[in-house]
Amino acid sequence: MKPIISAFLFLMIATNSFGNTLPKNQKANPFLGMWGLEVEGGGVGWLHVNEDQGFLDAELLWIGGSVLPVSHVYLADENTLVVTRTNISKKSDDRSHTITNTLRIVKTGDTLKGTMSGPRRDGEYVANFTGFPMPTMPDKPDLSKVVYDKPIALFNGKDLTGWELMNPNQENGFKVMNGIMVNDPVQPENGKHISYGNIKTNQEFEDFNLKLEVNVPKGNNSGVYLRGIYEIQVVDSYGNDLDSHNMGALYSRIQPSQAAEKPAGEWQSMDITLVDRHVTVILNGKKIIDNQPAWGPTGGAMSADVLSSGPIYLQGDHGNVSYRNIVLTPVK
Predict the structure, then answer these.
(1) How many whole angstroms separate alpha carbon 303 and alpha carbon 293?
(2) Which pairs count as long-range contacts for 125-131, CB under 8 Å and 24+ apart, including other chains?
(3) pLDDT above 80 (res 260)
(4) Per-residue pLDDT for 270 more than 90?
(5) Residue 179 and residue 323: Cα distance in Å, rounded?
(6) What is the pLDDT of residue 27?
């Protein structure tokens, strides 16, 4: 019986009956790899297409939120990739809908052109986007050899000089009280909802070390964006299990190696280093991210160009939070 089984296996492989073995003359998938996405009208995404598990798969970041596995991904033809993602919308206690969004992507040269479409309350959501390959990740830097320039105080303790709203059409919830930068996005008890915005530094930076202190009341959260691209999470996560959405995490990308946050309402120290697209975070004196690669932008990023300089920006639309002693030291 052994020769028969061997012959059967050979025939299955030769005819690609298992679905995972490619004929020798079949072209490699041109979409494999990591792609930065720029959405028309504003917004940043990131797509990682891979075959690491023996089948075509992908992860997607779309403007906000987390990097998540897609629901399905396939090649419609040798130059067109289709990606779907789903989420559940609960309509009532006994009824929910599965919402499907579809990305249809065409590759021309080294560039992607695509559309994201899906349902919304008043019809169909359609967004156009452009994609480009993410640059090769540099080797892990030797931080002991990094040379720094002079420190820059980003907050003078008196006013918001050096900071501005990212969207001038929104309200600024940040103010200075007793030498502390306080964000208090209060909504009126009655009346129209107020849209509060994020603030950013007027200056832009490349690689640096950033030190600050932050106080997060119970149930609140914010975020510190490095170069406007990578969010270091600021949130009341004391007592929670380790997660990539906890205090000090690179949001949805790098989970802290240990829990180092303090209870809500206490001042906490952050010591953050960004060098060669590698991130180190020391929270309250404990190293929780150790020189780890940041593979792409996080939700809410200003740009998908991970090689560009950018500002420090603070989330102002999420909740009450206070900052002080914000000092950035650039790399020479």
Answers:
(1) 18
(2) 125/101, 127/39, 127/40, 127/41, 127/43, 128/39, 128/40, 129/37, 129/38, 129/39, 129/40, 129/45, 130/37, 130/38, 130/40, 131/35, 131/36, 131/37, 131/38, 131/45, 131/47, 131/105
(3) yes
(4) yes
(5) 9
(6) 67
pLDDT for the residue numbered 94 = 87
Give the range among 17-21, 104-108, 189-193, 327-331 with minimum mean pLDDT.
17-21
| Spatial CB neighbours of 13, under 8 Å, sequence gap ≥ 6 | 21
Confidence of residue 266 (pLDDT cuts 50, 70, 90): very high
Structural domains of the chain, ranges and CATH numbers in brackets: 2-133 (2.40.128), 143-330 (2.60.120.560)
Half-sphere exposure of 62 (CA within 13 A, CB side): 22
Residues 29-78 have pLDDT tens digits of: 999 999 999 999 999 999 999 997 789 999 999 999 999 999 999 999 99
Cβ contacts of 302 within 8 Å, gap of 6 or more: 44, 166, 200, 225, 228, 229, 310, 311, 313
| Whether pLDDT at 190 is above 90 | no
Structure tokens at 268: 């906490």
Amino acid at the residue 2: K
The type of residue at 6 is S
**Residues 248, 243: Cα–Cα separation, whole Å:** 10
Residue 330: how many CA atoms within 13 Å on its side-chain side? 14
Given the DSSP bridges, would you call strands 44-50 and 321-330 parallel, antiparallel or unpaired? unpaired
- The Cα–Cα gap between 237 and 9 comes to 53
